[in-house]
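Hi R.,

Here's the chain you asked about this morning:
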Amino acid sequence: DTANYVDVVYVTDESKFVVVYTDSGNSNYGTFAIGSCNSSSVITWATPVVFRSQAVSWTSACEQTAANDTSGQNRARVVVAFGESTGGVVKPHGTALTFISGTISGGGPINTLSTDPDASNKFRIATDPVTNRYLVVYVANSKLSALSFKLNEDSITDKSSVVRPTGENGQNPCVVYDTAAAKITIFFEDSYASDELTAMVCTDLTSSGLAFGSQFDITSTHASPGRNGAVFDPTTNQIFIGYRDENSSDQGTGNMYTNDYSVTNLTASNFLGIADAAISDAASGKITMKGGVATNSQLLPLAYTGSLGSAAVYQSTATEYQG
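And the predicted structure, written out as tokens:
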């Protein structure tokens, strides 16, 4: 096979890789193959399978975990976004490849994701496991574009309208879910800033509309990133973005990017109690231990003084029990 527009995703529940691509040796049909990795880190690929018997382009994939299968069947899926000609114009399309008994027999229903009149390309897809929605980012008429949808078994539903996050030119996008920030981050070339590599976070991912945060330049020099890709590192809570730097002899270049996120070290095992006031560093103060009694508390609970079967009577008490 001669593969173009290649993307690969690791399916956690199945412990397998799935690569999607257009097979130029077979009329550019949309194709996938499943790979299994052994203890020697050798990947064995199964026979490729066609998921779309029609010429497609710009394939991109992400996983749906079994836990996010809304059908209750607990099946893992690979969700694919790709380009396909509709009325002579390439439009964003999508489908889902469902694992059954450790394998995928073929593709699910094909869905046109947008009727945007502009020709589209460079599709990238990511999933937000919290909202259980998918974000597809692409380029239409040289403008960065985005839409979202949900998955009902292997059918695409609840599609959003298309938005232009930057309102201006943007090229070569890639998307990645940041587990620490619980947000999808988009990286792209800002055509209005000499193709600087730029980042932007999707702040709202709903069917009623998409919202995005401010843009941040990743490269301080006017480098044209060309092709790029991003992956989240759960150990450092950072995103690694790799790209081809056309201002540096097309060398492979990488940057680390960190979104703002909240952290806490409070757990059920290390919680001691509640202080009656703020205590600064090196100062002393009183802490009511878990299970202790705080008297004259301003956070007074309501004590039930009535009886079952009668109208309830509540009154404030001057003692608060912790725990």
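The two ends are 64 Å apart (CA to CA).

Let me know if you need anything else.
M.
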